[in-house]
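Hi there,

I know you've been waiting on this one. I reran it after we fixed the sequence typo, so this is the corrected version. Both the input and the resulting structure follow.
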Amino acid sequence: MNSVCFPRRLAAEERRSTEGRLSPASGFTLLELAIVIFIMALMFTLAVPYTGGYRKARLKSEARRLAGRASYLFDQASAQKVFLRLVFDLDHQVYGVMRLDPYAVPTPSFGPDHSSGSAPVAMPPSIAIRDVTVGDLGTFSAGTVATQFYPEGYVDATLIHMTDLSGHVITLAFNPVTGRVIVAEGDLSMAQVLTR
């Protein structure tokens, strides 16, 4: 009788010990799924504003890069007593430098500048030069336009608007007398930038 009773007691104990465990076919409860979805939505909400900040930071970085190039050219033109042009190809979103040595023989003419730091710069796909306004020449949003740096220590009054895919605009203004490049956020005119 004990031998028959023992297996029954063992089977009953096994059933009690497995009642608390999940079977392989059990899944998530509706409450667990709702909590996971809520956490994912919260993380997404916190992360999305930072992608816009990244684009804006990239736009500012490209604007500072262009401003640095213009300041360098202003200094080089007066130090080396040459004419330098910052040429913008708005159709291909590239800008580069041309040089004219007024003392070149037999005739001075503009040609590509091969000095260090004068390689052409292509704008990243997410950033664009929207338009360039040069002195009395007017505003250009297509084609090629150039800003000239003079050996006497001045530059053509120039206003540049750069944009990104989000629609942010940064304005660069070249002060014709001091050569200082002002970088300001927003779609501004020359007068608005210079009075800041």
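Quick highlight: The longest strand covers residues 127-134.

Best,
R. S.
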